[in-house]
Amino acid sequence: MIQLNQVAAANFHYKRYSLDYFLDSAARLGFENIELWASGPHFHLDYYTPQDVQHLKRKIKDRGLKVICLTPEQSVYPISISHPDPVYRKKSVEFFCRHIEVAALLECDQMLVTTGLAYLDEDESEMWKWCRESLGEICKTAEKEGIILPVEAFTSYSTHVFNSAEHISRMIKEVGSPNLKGLADTDVMAVTGKDTIHDFIRELGGNLGYVHFVDGNPGGHLVPGEGGLPLEEALQALNDSGYKGYLGLELLDRRYVLDPEKAMRDSLAWFGKHLG
């Protein structure tokens, strides 16, 4: 059965507070594990030296926390491994490889990766090929560093090429790396309307590496219980499948940014009611 220590705090909605405040908050609330959003103002890698990373690792360890997933900002910044420009793709691959190396320094086992924006006026098969080739290169670094890469499908607002559990499963097979896994986001799948958590479990099986467990209307990435998604059913399905990974709290709605700890506390309260 899924346990409360499989729920991971995340700093997305803490961006109006310092990173130290987030770490203190996660420890204060009793979390053991965190997903670390690698972006400004908290952890933009261009502004960090290797010594800074080591200092951050000590801060995290001193609070009894562990980073279970590093998530570079890849939805807003100019990052796309599906871009038609080979130089753009090469820079994007290098971006992910640098973060893989940092994940290893932080003793974190996973780093989230996505396909990036796909142009509507480009050939879909070409974009798929570019994405596959890029992931193959990124996986070489991941294998060297011992980092698992959960890849996430996006909504059609971000890409029309990579939107479903079937897409993830197919890409994992085509890339052929043991380090490439799948990520299921309960709100993204609801917005996309292509899959349910049951589909992700069936399609990915043991390759389901990570879950963003959030509510929505759909859309919003809300605290569990604050939207209309069937999260009790999703939790039961994950339990029934024997899922052993983490449930990340990727809370993104701006209603949470002024009092992020309350949102995290409310999330814990929901899990307290629904976990055995």
UniProtKB/TrEMBL annotation:
Domain Xylose isomerase-like TIM barrel: 24-272
Gene3D superfamilies: Divalent-metal-dependent TIM barrel enzymes
A Pfam family of this chain: AP_endonuc_2
UniProt signal peptide: none
SUPFAM superfamilies: Xylose isomerase-like
Protein name: Protein FrlC
Organism annotation: Paenibacillus jilunlii
